[in-house]
Amino acid sequence: MDIEERYNVVIHSIIRTIDGVKLSGDTAEELKVRESSAGLNVARAYSDLSNRMVEIEVNFYPVANLSYRMEVPRNLDA
Known about the structure:
By secondary structure, the protein is mainly beta. It is built from 2 helices and 3 strands. Helix content is about 15%, strand content about 40%.
């Protein structure tokens, strides 16, 4: 079930923030890397048509295992 179905809303925008971090404590252990290893914190904030925040997701990734690809289609009807 996706966010729109779960909350019965239309997602209008997603703000994605990617920050470099040093992985610490439980996060490093969970990702099976040494504490203070380089990592990425990827946060996504989903907003509806009224610009109301619907959901926030925060994920951590070890840098060594990360490949990031993003496609943003152009809306030619606008």
